C-alpha cells in the first residue's frame, strides 16, 4: 500500500509542541471544558496508521478514532467517494427527496449481517441514535416497555442511552433523571466472575424473570464484545443461551455492534463468533471510514413495525456518509481486512500473552481480531490497577504511541489499530508498549 505520510512514529518537539500549546490556550477560552481529549497534541493530518500533529510529531494510532477509521485514516477510496459526492452538489434529505445510495447501502448491510432471514435497515448519524431507534422499533414491535441491559455496558450519551450505559463517571454523573424502564443485570466476565457461559446465562435469566417478568421485556440489548466496559469477551455459550431465552419469550434480541462490527473482530460482525443471529444489529464507528453514519439492521417484520415517519432524522443517511460507507465496505472486501484483523490478533497475542504470569500486573489479554485489550491488576491478585495504566499510556505517548484506555475500573488498555497498519509499525509500537509495561511493573 502507498501512503502519503511515512508510516513511522517520530517525536520532533517537546509534547505538546508549541503550536499545540497555542491551540490548547485558545481551546481553554472557547471550547467547553466538558469535552475531553486523550492526546494533548492537535492533529493536522492523518494517513493509514499515523496521526501527524501541527508541530510535525507523528503518532502510531492504536485508537482509530475509537474504532472508526478501521480501513485506515484518510483512505484514498473513501476520500474519492466523499469528494465526488460533495461535488454532486446536493444535500438530499431522505424524508423529503429520496436517493439511491440510501437504498444501496441498506441492501449491502442486510447482506453483510448474520441471519438467513429477510432483513431491512434504516440509517442514522451516531451510535447512540442507532441504539435509540433500535429500542423504539423493538417497543413498537412488541408493544412492551422493559429494556434489559448489562453491567459494564456502554450504549451512548443521549438520555435514553445514558440510562442504558452502566458507568456513572464520566457518562452519567449529574445528568439525570434518566429514562425509565431500563433494567440492568450481570452478564459474563470470565476473568472476574469465574462462571461458565451456561452458569452466567442462568444467573441473568433468573434475575430477568424475577425482577421484570419475561413477558414484559421488549428487548435485550448487549454488546457481543463489551467495548468501553473493558473489551470483555463473554464465556462461550452465554450469548446463545440469552438469544434462546429471548426467542422463547417474544423478546427482541439486539446486538450493539457499534464498536465490534464491520470487520473489526475478523468477521463482518462479532455475533458470528458466537454463532448467534441477532434480531436487530446496531452499527456505526467503523462503518463509513470516518464519516458520521450509523444503522439499525434486522428482521424485516421488526424493522417494519413503526409507522412511516416514526423513524428518521434530518441528516440520517446523508448521501456523503452513504458514499463513504459504500466505499469503506468495498475497501474491507478488496483489501481482505477481516483477515488482516486476525493476523494482527495473532501478532498481539504472541507478544503479550507470555507476559501473563511473568509480569504480575498483567492480568489478562483478551478480545477478538483487532479489538484486543490487556487488563492490569495489582501484583499478587486481581485488584484493578488504574494507576499503572495511566503511567503506561503517558509513557507510550511520549514515545509516539497513542493508546486508549477502557474498563469500568479504568484498568484496561485497548488496542484498536487501523487494519492497514504495517507489520513493521505494529512490531515497533508493540515493542514500545511492552517496554512501558515493564518499566512500571
Ligand atoms: C461508541 C459506542 C456507542 C455510541 O456511539 P456514538 O456514536 O458515540 O453515539 C454505542 N455503543 C457502543 C458499543 C459503542 O462503542
Automatic annotation (TrEMBL):
<dbReference type="GO" id="GO:0009448">
    <property type="term" value="P:gamma-aminobutyric acid metabolic process"/>
</dbReference>
<dbReference type="InterPro" id="IPR015421">
    <property type="entry name" value="PyrdxlP-dep_Trfase_major"/>
</dbReference>
<dbReference type="GO" id="GO:0034386">
    <property type="term" value="F:4-aminobutyrate:2-oxoglutarate transaminase activity"/>
</dbReference>
<keyword id="KW-0663">Pyridoxal phosphate</keyword>
<dbReference type="GO" id="GO:0042802">
    <property type="term" value="F:identical protein binding"/>
</dbReference>
<keyword id="KW-0032">Aminotransferase</keyword>
<comment type="similarity">
    <text>Belongs to the class-III pyridoxal-phosphate-dependent aminotransferase family.</text>
</comment>
<comment type="pathway">
    <text>Amino-acid degradation; 4-aminobutanoate degradation.</text>
</comment>
<dbReference type="GO" id="GO:0047298">
    <property type="term" value="F:(S)-3-amino-2-methylpropionate transaminase activity"/>
</dbReference>
<dbReference type="InterPro" id="IPR004632">
    <property type="entry name" value="4NH2But_aminotransferase_bac"/>
</dbReference>
<dbReference type="InterPro" id="IPR049704">
    <property type="entry name" value="Aminotrans_3_PPA_site"/>
</dbReference>
<dbReference type="InterPro" id="IPR050103">
    <property type="entry name" value="Class-III_PLP-dep_AT"/>
</dbReference>
<dbReference type="GO" id="GO:0030170">
    <property type="term" value="F:pyridoxal phosphate binding"/>
</dbReference>
<dbReference type="Pfam" id="PF00202">
    <property type="entry name" value="Aminotran_3"/>
</dbReference>
<dbReference type="InterPro" id="IPR015422">
    <property type="entry name" value="PyrdxlP-dep_Trfase_small"/>
</dbReference>
<dbReference type="InterPro" id="IPR005814">
    <property type="entry name" value="Aminotrans_3"/>
</dbReference>
<dbReference type="InterPro" id="IPR015424">
    <property type="entry name" value="PyrdxlP-dep_Trfase"/>
</dbReference>
<protein>
    <recommendedName>
        <fullName>(S)-3-amino-2-methylpropionate transaminase</fullName>
        <ecNumber>2.6.1.19</ecNumber>
        <ecNumber>2.6.1.22</ecNumber>
    </recommendedName>
</protein>
<keyword id="KW-0808">Transferase</keyword>
